[in-house]
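Sharing a chain and its predicted structure for anyone who wants a worked example. Both blocks are below, sequence first, tokens second.
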Amino acid sequence: MFDVYAFATPNSVKVTIALEELELPYTLHGVNVRKGEQKTPEFLALNPNGKVPVLVETEQAFSLTESAAILVFLAEKTGRLLPAHGEARARVFEQLFFHASGLSPAFGQSGFFQRFAATPEPVALERFSTEANRTLHVLDTVLEKNRFVAGDEFTIADIAHFGWLWRRGFPNITLDDTPHVARWYADIESRPAVQRGIARIEALVLQD
């Protein structure tokens, strides 16, 4: 049994999708980042970095932060969504690291400077908007050759990328010029477990 502390964010939805895909039981706890609940002493005791999501393995009293680390932990625990060895496993980690170091921060910073910067920062906005679109086109090139981002099989790397593309409106990104990403996104979005994971996360906003 797991406890998940999350909100309707790109990183949070990755965890609920993975848990639904892996058919693992969990209790979802809303942490409203709009109200600053991620900065309360109670939450900081779970994650000193003050960010969602957090996964707690209830019986073991083991907690884990960072969405990519959580995805790897769940995949290794179940033996699913991550190849056990060889080139196929390396390709999954290649995409996970590309997501964590490239696409995810570019999307996040682009959205921030468009929506929340106290004063216009044209240089920063140009830098991150360009980088967000560049990384999206890199992913399109990968998906031109592969059904999924790491090859022929659906893996945690797909879940990682899907989280930010699900929230692509935040950095004002579209899939109009990336047909292979658009095809892949529609395939992932149609998966029943993905739909359940999204629904659980979106319900947190409705409960607020």
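Comments welcome. Helices lie at 10-21, 41-46, 67-78, 86-115, 122-145, 156-166, 179-189, 192-207.
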